[in-house]
Amino acid sequence: MADIKYYDVILKPVVTEKSMNAMAEKKYTFLVHPSATKSQIKEAVEKMFEGTKVAKVNTMNNDGKTKRRGMTFGKTAKTKKAIVQLTEESADIEIFEGL
């Protein structure tokens, strides 16, 4: 496994209606590096967003979809999502700052 730095772990936030509703409960969804572990994700969130404290991290691996163009078949890239639950006393994350 390659040496992943904390700034390479989080790729981008997931901005959907479901993820926006979960922000009321201090749950934030990010696309992360496919080989990142839960402890690396926790460390990256706490370092990148000052004043946050992570309570737990849930991850899910999504396989690439099979796509077809003419008679040629291929697959899209695999992705990994992380749902990060913050503690009650931690500050909220402003995910729209860098967008």
List the helices and strands and how they pair.
Blueprint: H1 6-9, E1 10-13, H2 17-22, E2 27-32, H3 38-48, E3 54-62, E4 66-69, E5 72-75, E6 79-86
Antiparallel strand pairs: 1-2, 2-6, 3-6, 4-5
Physical arrangement of strands within the biggest beta sheet? 1-2-6-3
How many DSSP-defined strands?
A: 6
Please give the count of helices. 3
Helix % is 10-25%
Give the C-alpha Rg: 15 Å
Poorly predicted ranges (pLDDT <50, ≥5 residues)? none
Secondary-structure element string: HEHEHEEEE
Shape by Cα distribution = globular
Quick one: biggest sheet? Answer: 4 strands, antiparallel
Average pLDDT metric = 91
Instruction: Name the beta content range.
Output: 35-45%
Q: What class, by secondary structure content? A: alpha+beta
Span between N and C termini?
29 Å
Structural features, described:
By secondary structure, the chain is of the alpha+beta class. Helices cover 21% and strands 35% of the residues. The protein contains three helices and six strands. It has helices at residues 6-9, 17-22, 38-48; strands spanning 10-13, 27-32, 54-62, 66-69, 72-75, 79-86. Strand 4 (66-69) and strand 5 (72-75) form a beta hairpin. The longest helix has 11 residues, at 38-48. The relative contact order is 0.25. The mean pLDDT is 91.
